[in-house]
Design brief:
Bound molecules: S-adenosylmethionine
Radius of gyration: 23 Å
CATH class of the largest domain: Alpha Beta
Shape: globular
Number of domains: 3
Number of helices: 20
Helix content: 40-55%
Length: 445
């Protein structure tokens, strides 16, 4: 394709994908506005696969056309001069969205500054940067109000817990990342105990893995598990409830299920299934409390059980229909992942299925992407978008770095998963493409 034709094709992609997104919003009501003060009904929909698919093309095409047309020095500095996370940390830690709830017409930054004890002129600059990103409205000079985006930072929203995890902890790993790659003691190690985040806490790896560290810090552990509920809307993972036929099965084992970020909605939507949540004993304390509060009927009807399990040392409860692992395998390097999957393999009955639900890194080779599309039904990027959807799939690559920073682990390509699962004795049956994440369905080989 000639250069000008590529730009024209990108413009067409922007136009069609934006129109697809608009049509989806219109199915639920009016289209959203950048400054609207409430959430849109589609924001909390369980199945956002169609919207995420449209936005993936829209974000990829917008970024690609900007990078093509802007001077490269402009784009290069855009990559690094990004303080959004530092500003979000301030407003999230100081509960600015919760404070602004009482002031729908806006609050002057001087008043806000008094309430949170931050120098007002500095605070105004932080708020203006965020408002420029579309998070908070500047309704009059130096007067700020909530909007649809800033409402995500309310204390009640579990997404805020994931945001705090990033800005408080994971960025510390980012700040020593280069040093960990050059420190001769650990540079070539994939030990989770010396992952950059753990290195930022203690260079000698004496704190153990992040899970060992959290076991000694109740508040951190509780916030971490709550943040997993945020993943439901961040990744749109609950779409699995609408796409996978859980109604055909009667037992589900949520391996490393945490507080049941997935299983709680499963118990509410699919009353036919009996659920076993397996996790470390310290995680399950919070789980039992939460279920008693949020889904007592599942406890009363004996539809859920909580069983301690260390998935490196023990085999899960045997012979169940579905073994579901959401965001588990990406927490571990290959050696540890193979142990987890081999232990699950030992639990399988002849008709059992294993569902691995994670990001799947897309290929930059168009030839490989075409094979995955034709053989496994994974969506392929329209030309001239980069074959992996470019920036439209950026979060999977950022999340790959998150896994490296936190656990010395990784997100994987389909090829990477096939290598791991073949060693563990699993056979790939189907890939359920949920746009941002995928569910890979396996049987016993
Ligand atoms: C990223 S979270 C995912 C939680 C849940 N699957 C979800 O998607 O919400 C990882 C989970 O693995 C659990 N975990 C870590 N080490 C474990 C182990 N050795 N045995 C069992 N569970 C473990 C953690 O407690 C945590 O709940």
């Amino acid at each position: 394709m000639a250069n000008k034709a590529k730009l024209e094709a990108l413009l067409t992609l922007i136009n069609t994908s934006a129109r697809d997104a608009i049509a989806l919003y219109e199915q639920y009501g009016d289209v959203p506005a950048i400054d609207q003060a409430e959430l849109h009904p589609l924001d909390n929909a369980v199945d956002q696969v169609a919207l995420k698919s449209a936005v993936r093309i829209l974000e990829g095409a917008c970024a690609q056309i900007c990078t093509t047309l802007a001077p490269p020095a402009h784009t290069a500095v855009n990559l690094v001069q990004v303080y959004d996370h530092a500003c979000v940390r301030v407003v999230a830690r100081e509960r600015v969205s919760d404070i602004l709830l009482k002031y729908p017409k806006g609050l002057h930054v001087n008043e806000l500054a008094k309430k949170i004890n931050i120098e007002p002129k500095k605070l105004a600059r932080i708020m203006r940067l965020l408002a420029t990103r579309g998070c908070y409205n500047e309704v009059d000079t130096d007067v700020f109000a909530n909007n649809r985006l800033s409402l995500i930072l309310l204390d009640e929203n579990p997404v805020k817990f994931m945001i705090l995890l990033h800005v408080d902890l994971i960025t510390k790993g980012g700040s020593v990342f280069y040093e960990t790659l050059k420190d001769p003691k650990i540079a070539y190690s994939y030990e989770p105990t010396v992952a950059p985040v753990m290195y930022s806490i203690d260079k000698n790896g004496t704190e153990g893995t992040i899970f060992d560290w959290m076991a000694r810090h109740d508040g951190q552990r509780e916030a971490y598990h709550t943040s997993m509920r945020g993943l439901n809307s961040i990744m749109g993972s609950l779409a699995v409830l609408a796409h996978f036929p859980f109604e055909k099965y009667s037992t589900v084992v949520d391996v490393g299920g945490g507080i049941g970020a997935f299983s709680l909605p499963l118990a509410k939507t699919h009353k036919n299934v009996k659920i076993t949540i397996h996790d470390l004993p310290e995680a399950l304390v919070q789980t039992r409390d939460l279920w008693a509060k949020e889904c007592p009927e599942a406890l009363a009807e004996d539809r859920v059980e909580f069983e301690d399990l260390n998935f490196f040392e023990q085999v899960p409860v045997k012979g169940k229909d579905i073994y579901y692992l959401r965001n588990i395998i990406h927490d571990w390097p290959d050696h540890e992942s193979t142990i987890i999957l081999s232990n699950i393999r030992k639990a399988l009955g002849p008709n059992s299925r294993v569902l691995i639900h994670d990001y799947v890194l897309r290929q930059l080779s168009r030839k490989q992407a075409a094979i995955e599309h034709s053989e496994l039904g994974v969506a392929s990027a329209p030309e001239p978008l980069l074959a992996n959807f470019g920036v439209g799939n950026m979060r999977s690559y950022q999340q790959d770095m998150t896994m490296l920073l936190v656990h010395n682990a990784k997100e994987r390509t389909l090829q990477d998963f096939l290598v791991l699962t073949t060693v563990a004795g699993l056979k790939l049956e189907k890939v359920w493409d949920l746009a941002e994440s995928c569910v890979m369905e396996y049987s016993a080989a």
